[in-house]
Design a protein that fits this description.
It is a single chain. By secondary structure, this protein is of the alpha/beta class. The protein is about 45% helix and about 5% strand. The chain has eight helices and four strands. Strands 2-1-3-4 form a four-stranded parallel β-sheet, with helices on both faces. The longest helix is centred in the last third of the chain and has 26 residues.
Length: about 260
């Protein structure tokens, strides 16, 4: 895959104009984060994963281009750990709205918004509903919910025989994707497990309300030590395929 064929920020404006006029009328907006991911992963992890997934979605759809990944995101639950950034919800919402307003003026007709960071999901669903009211002539998809993403993680664990709860924040799945996508940002010698257990609604609520340090000093949900690059490639394919299924469902419902 040639990233400059899909990444808007890598193109000059005449190229973007030509692609839109040729029928590439869908823009993919990933919202990510800049936040701690334990001892072994960079704070750019969600952004790297989000861009990689967005590129696969664009390539598979054939009529879509990828916007610059939005980051930071909503990461209040990671703020106790150095370097993590978080936006006020109103600022976060405003950035997404301004992205859409700009791209609408250029001729994009469909917008796919997905998140590679758990803390953005609930707000994204509200934002997409509001955007549909603001721009009724456009089509919007918020793609997967947080619970649907967690189901994909459970599939990942089952496929590779991992203990339940191995694939939370900074765990086996994200580490595998980073080994596949950006191995220079991974230090497996420092990979340390954190909280390992079922990601119940109670656990998630505790993370978002009390902060991740309330259940793990390491900042990890899961166990990154078994991660493998080829597992990361598998998950990106799975993630992008499921986003596309959700997008088709959303767009067909709006027609």
């Amino acid at each position: 895959m040639k990233t400059h064929d899909y990444l808007l920020e890598h193109m000059n404006w005449p190229t973007v104009k030509e692609k839109i006029e040729a029928g590439m009328d869908t823009v993919i907006i990933c919202t990510a984060s800049v936040e701690q991911h334990g001892y072994h992963l960079s704070e750019l992890t969600d952004t790297v994963i989000g861009q990689a997934a967005g590129l696969l979605v664009a390539e598979k759809l054939g009529n879509a281009l990828v916007a610059p990944v939005i980051r930071p995101g909503l990461s209040e639950h990671h703020i106790p750990m150095a370097g993590s950034l978080t936006l006020r919800p109103e600022v976060y919402r405003g950035i997404i709205e301004d992205y859409v307003t700009s791209y609408k003026k250029h001729g994009f007709k469909k917008v796919i918004i997905f998140s590679s960071h758990g803390g953005n999901f609930n707000e994204n669903e509200k934002i997409v509903k509001n955007l549909q009211e603001m721009h009724p002539e456009m089509q919007f998809s918020s793609s997967l919910s947080l619970m649907e993403l967690m189901d994909l993680m459970a599939q990942f664990e089952k496929k590779y025989g991992l203990v339940e709860g191995s694939c939370g924040h900074g765990g086996a799945m994200e580490t595998s994707v980073m080994l596949h996508t950006a191995p220079e940002q991974v230090d497996m010698d420092k990979a340390t497990p954190g909280y390992i257990g079922p990601m119940t609604e109670e656990v998630l609520n505790k993370v978002f309300k009390s902060g991740i340090v309330g259940i793990t000093e390491v900042g990890i949900l899961g166990d990154p030590r078994q991660a493998k690059a080829e597992w990361g490639e598998y998950f990106l394919e799975l993630f992008s395929d499921e986003i596309i299924k959700a997008v088709h469902k959303d767009f067909n419902r709006l027609l």
